[in-house]
Design brief:
This protein has 10 helices and no strands. By secondary structure, it is mostly helical. Helix 3 packs antiparallel against helix 4, helix 3 runs parallel beside helix 6 and helix 4 packs parallel to helix 8.
């Protein structure tokens, strides 16, 4: 048996000459490579205005943030919807894994909002805002998807909790005995928290760019966004914290 040099490239991994190795695209679609065809980069990168179409160069920044946010939101609600189905099949560990992924997606879109604060308030309101028509974050398909799947996730969690014969407070008191159910409750709490953090950042970005005492593109006062900050998907999980604190005080 002959030994192979550790630096030798295995057959099929660039070992041959360019004439022998053919990496021409094999996937259907447009694009000079399979990377471009799989990701459909021709279509993706044509979704933003061209320089000739832009009212201001920062439209590329504005569209990039919002379009990428829609993708991350789509991933987030897709994972939550799948996780809810897994919970109904009593596959808690698999559901928790997907919920953690969804929560990371939400973290990403919160961070994306930072980029919008790089725009000049005057240049945005003077040049970009007028070309948005009646466009509003209230019409976001991704955010509306988040709102749509969240109640079903909560219902699936509470079904499992009731099966275990536990109140929310009891689940937290006996979390070590019901580890997966406890971790699930924490995933829902984090999902709710990330949604709130997004609302806060969104409101502050809007306030920083166009002001907090003006009317939005659909005639909605910006201050209404501030009032939405305290909305919660699962208030019972937050109320349980208050009750746990009071119970702990009684034991002092």
């Amino acid at each position: 048996m002959t030994s192979r040099d550790a630096t030798e490239v295995p057959p099929g991994h660039g070992a041959g000459t360019p004439e022998e190795e053919d990496y021409s695209p094999i996937l259907p679609g447009r694009g000079a490579s399979d990377y471009e065809r799989y990701l459909r980069t021709d279509e993706l990168l044509s979704l933003q205005k061209t320089p000739e179409e832009m009212a201001h160069r920062d439209e590329l920044l504005f569209q990039t943030v919002h379009q990428s946010s829609e993708l991350w939101l789509k991933l987030a609600w897709f994972e939550v919807e799948t996780a809810t189905g897994l919970l109904r099949e009593r596959e808690l560990a698999a559901a928790i894994r997907l919920l953690r992924r969804a929560n990371e997606a939400m973290r990403t879109i919160i961070g994306l909002l930072d980029m919008l604060e790089q725009m000049s308030p005057w240049e945005y309101t003077r040049s970009i805002r007028p070309v948005l028509g009646h466009g509003s974050g209230f019409d976001s398909p991704g955010w509306n998807g988040v709102r749509r799947v969240s109640p079903d996730l909560g219902a699936a969690f509470h079904e499992l909790r009731r099966e275990a014969g536990l109140s929310v407070v009891e689940l937290y008191q006996r979390g070590r005995e019901h580890e997966e159910l406890y971790q699930l409750a924490e995933c829902l709490t984090e999902w709710d928290e990330r949604a709130t953090l997004w609302r806060v950042r969104h409101f502050k970005v809007v306030e920083r760019i166009i002001g907090g005492e003006v009317v939005g593109t659909q005639g909605t006062p910006v201050e209404l966004l501030g009032g939405l900050i305290h909305r919660r998907f699962y208030p019972e999980l937050w109320d349980a914290r208050n009750e746990l604190t009071e119970l702990a005080k009684k034991e002092e």
